[in-house]
Amino acid sequence: MELKGKLAVVTGAGNGIGLGLAKRFAAEGARVVVSDISPELTERAAAAVGGPARAVDVGKAKDLHDFIAWVEADVGPIDLYCANPAIFSGPEGGNFQTTEETWELSWQVNVMSHIRAAKQLVPLMMARGGGYFLQTLSAAALITGPSAVAYTVTKHAGLGFAEWLVINYGDKGIKVSCLCPTAVQTRDNQFDPATTMGANIGLVQTPEEVADITVKGLAAERFLILPNPAVGGSFRKKAEDYDAWLQRSITRMKDFRPPSPFV
Ligand SMILES: NC(=O)c1ccc[n+]([C@@H]2O[C@H](COP(=O)([O-])OP(=O)(O)OC[C@H]3O[C@@H](n4cnc5c(N)ncnc54)[C@H](O)[C@@H]3O)[C@@H](O)[C@H]2O)c1
After folding, report:
1. What mean pLDDT value characterizes the chain?
2. Which H or E element spans position 181?
3. Tell me: the pLDDT tens digits for 3-41?
4. For residue 258, is it within any domain?
5. CA of 13 to the centre of ligand 1 (A)
């Protein structure tokens, strides 16, 4: 997809990867609508990008519907919709300690928001010849790693939905890319080497690097956009011998894992 002249919507654009994408899409010549759950961060992003803006919690079905309807009616037809924010639970506080509330929130934000946006936009996009969805997932959608259980499971579900979407609507002009980063420095102390995770994380990228790789992935209309090239190799090895991959992962996870609540 050529971004110049297109209308792009970036949700969760107040910080991190979403802000990096919004700024870069604007620099490529797209008109960018920015949105975040936080009104203050939405305003900050709007000031950085220069486009229309409105705060929305994508995890709330009616609010998300009204937001998309507002963009379509008052700003213009959406060419590229980026479902970007996610609930990240853990790893240090997660796994079987994950509460029902965190599970529910993770489903709403990490999965249902993608499904609801597509359900609303696909008929509109099809009627005008096509449209594009960029789903920010994670390497955790492809390869189960040190992330907490609710995050891992819902990111896999996000990938399942993205595959379903392109398989069922790809012949009707609907295009989908899944951005699957590993570690991106979006907040202070996020990969603090003093933590189990931080000490073992490996390559850490910036939102700007991820945005650059995303723009190239969108230009090539690649389904999987992998900022860390090692992820593609791991995914391939997993598919080639699932059992060997599981055994390697059991050993490797000892470097990352916080103490189990069961021991
Ligand atoms: N940072 C990483 O290392 C990393 C790695 C892999 C995948 N990802 C994925 O990238 C995406 C963005 O992560 P990030 O690190 O840039 O996060 P971030 O916390 O830096 O920014 C996320 C933004 O989304 C907003 N937000 C949170 N909940 C929202 C909601 N319900 N509705 C609307 N906005 C909401 C926040 O206010 C924040 O401004 C997520 O899907 C995450 O899973 C991040």
Report:
1. 93
2. none
3. 999 999 999 999 999 999 999 999 999 999 999 999 999
4. no
5. 8
CB of 71 sitting under 6 A from ligand 1: no
pLDDT in tens, 114-139: 999 999 999 999 999 999 999 999 99
Using the mean position of ligand 1's atoms as its centre, give its distance from the Cα of residue 243 in Å: 32
| CB of 58 closer than 6 angstroms to any ligand 1 atom | yes
Per the domain annotation, does 201 fall within a domain?
A: yes
Residue of the CA atom closest to atom 27 of ligand 1: 85
Ligand 1 atom with the shortest distance to the CA of 155: 43
User: CB-hemisphere CA count at 13 Å for 72?
Assistant: 16
Ligand 1 atom with the smallest distance to the CA of 60 is: 31
Query: What domain count does the chain have?
Result: 1
Query: Could you report the per-residue pLDDT of 79-88, keeping only the tens digit for each?
Result: 999 999 999 8
Q: Is residue 12 a part of any domain in this protein?
A: yes
Which CATH number does the domain housing residue 56 bear? 3.40.50.720
Per the model's pLDDT, the better-predicted residue between 194 and 31 turns out to be 31
In this prediction, residue 19 carries a pLDDT of: 98
Domain membership flag for residue 204: yes
**Structural domain span for residue 192:** 7-253
Preceding omega of 91 cis (within 30 degrees of 0) = yes
Determine the distance separating the centroid of ligand 1 and the alpha carbon of 244, expressed in angstroms.
32
Closest atom of ligand 1 to CA, residue 181: 6
Q: Indicate which residue's Cα is closest to atom 14 of ligand 1.
A: 16
Active site residue 151: yes
Q: Report yes or no: 92 and 196 within 8 Å, Cβ to Cβ.
A: yes
- Whether the CB-CB separation of 83 and 131 falls below 8 Å is answered with no
CB-based contacts of 108, cutoff 8 Å, min separation 6 = 59, 60
CA of 150 to the centre of ligand 1 (A): 15
Token pair of 238 as six digits:
């997993």
